[in-house]
Amino acid sequence: MELSERFWNASLEELKKGYSRLGDQYVCLLCGSTCEQGVIYPVEDVLYEAERYMRLHIRMAHQSVFSYLIQLNKRLTGLTDHQNSLLRLFYEEYTDAQIQKELGIGSASTIRNHRFVLKEKERQSKIFLTLMELLKEKDSHAPRFVEVHQTATMVDDRYNITLEEQEKVLKKYFPEGKEGLLKAFPSRQKHKLIVLRAIAARFERDRKYHEKEVNEVLSAVHDDHVTLRRYLIEYGFMDRKPDGSEYWLT
């Protein structure tokens, strides 16, 4: 199961913790890092069993689950920029007076109204989530969609991709299989996304690459490695340092 699929299929309790258990392993839902039950992990002269180490990993690598989720694309969170700012400040335990000053809000009653709107959004989300769970039990005709990766930079209709459509596109552009050569770089945005997703899978997670190494991997896919590299970053599959000295999967 891919990381994004595990993330979207996780329960609310698992998402709140930021990790899930898979057999003898604990898997970080935010980056895919794993640790194994029964193994002791030393950190600065302190010994951690697997689950405690996973909680430590989330604090060290992501600050908190809240910090990670609040930075996701607003098409994924459904939050306006203003709601996002308010939630950050509420989480950081700002007082209403501090929030008024920070955001330039006129009165305490305005903040209370924002809290009420967010509470209504929470209630609506619970009902909608329950409806969708019940629908899964009945809707036998629903197509299987490709999960949106968490670091997607532009979530729109191009992500409306079924698994069957993805397989068809991959066969068209990778006639020798996903590990083979790319026949041509597609012009259609949706096809670009499918192809880039397959190319990103050729890189190792949690590894930093020099630009030369990235180019070597991409040159084995297609002659125009510069275009592939640019689109991998543009679509949120990879990131890099401002000076281009290091690249990594997001």
Key features of this structure:
globular; 3 domains; 7 strands; Arc Repressor Mutant, subunit A; 9% strand; two-stranded antiparallel ribbon; mainly alpha; three-stranded antiparallel sheet; 50% helix; 250 residues; 12 helices
Counting DSSP E segments of at least 2 residues, the number of strands comes to 7
Radius of gyration using CA atoms only: 21 Å
Helix content: 40-55%
Structural class: mainly alpha
Beginning-to-end CA distance, first to last residue? 17 Å
What is the overall silhouette? Answer: globular
| Uncertain stretches of 5 or more adjacent residues | none
Q: How big a fraction of the residues is strand?
A: 5-15%
Average pLDDT: 88
- Across the major sheet, the strand order is 1-2-3
Topology:
Layout: H1 3-9, H2 12-17, E1 19-22, E2 25-28, E3 34-36, E4 41-43, E5 46-48, H3 50-62, H4 65-70, H5 74-77, H6 81-91, H7 96-103, H8 108-136, H9 163-173, H10 189-200, H11 211-219, H12 225-234, E6 238-240, E7 247-249
Antiparallel strand pairs: 1-2, 2-3, 4-5, 6-7
Helix pairs in contact: 9-10, 11-12
